[in-house]
Specification:
InterPro entries: ActD. This protein is an alpha+beta fold and 177 residues long. Helix content is 46%, strand content 14%. The protein is rod-shaped and about 80 Å long.
Length: 177
């Protein structure tokens, strides 16, 4: 019995060939694609339909929560819990509270962005089916890979393999799940 299929992987020698292949694959109607390259390719992110929607909101909400928590704790400590009049300073000295509030807001936003990114990308990933594909270790060096996943509605192993071969890759191979 054959192992379940994760998808088909096409290997390309340069980023222009990969960009053309992604555009052709999207134009053919495939939607469940993964791309692996040794450097960021922002044009491919747009071609693949990746738009970061939730991450800016995570950062904004976490930053606002951190700022409110910091400002509220400073207010509580200085004006409510232990009011101490030093040199005629008002108990609610908001200008003195702002630097720490801004710093903590940035800290919370950065931490939430890191955690949100790791959760959204499901990292750290100790194993992925493409890691076992022949030659995939070069994805971090000088090769470019396009994977059409088997869960794509248009995926048919034979037809998709013929389609990918028509894009002139170095090779097309199956990736077991």
């Amino acid at each position: 019995m054959a192992a379940p299929l994760h998808g088909l992987m096409a290997e390309f020698a340069d980023h222009e060939a990969l960009s053309r292949a992604v555009e052709a694959t999207r134009a053919a109607g495939y939607g469940r694609l993964d791309v692996y390259a040794p450097f960021p390719m922002r044009d491919l992110a747009r071609s693949l339909g990746f738009h970061p929607r939730i991450l800016p909101w995570i950062a904004l909400l976490a930053g606002a929560f951190g700022a409110a928590l910091q400002y509220g704790s400073q207010y509580w400590m200085n004006a409510v819990d232990y009011p101490l009049n030093v040199g005629g300073r008002p108990l609610h000295a908001w200008p003195a509270f702002l630097p720490a509030t801004i710093i903590v807001a940035i800290l919370w936003a950065g931490g939430a962005t890191l955690i949100g990114t790791l959760l959204i990308l499901r990292l750290p990933r100790l194993h992925h089916p493409v890691f076992a594909a022949e030659g995939f270790e070069r994805a971090s060096q000088d090769r470019f890979f396009l994977v059409v996943r088997a869960d794509d509605p248009l995926f048919d192993a034979a037809a998709t393999a013929r389609f990918l071969a028509a894009l002139a890759p170095r090779r097309v191979q199956e990736v077991s799940a």
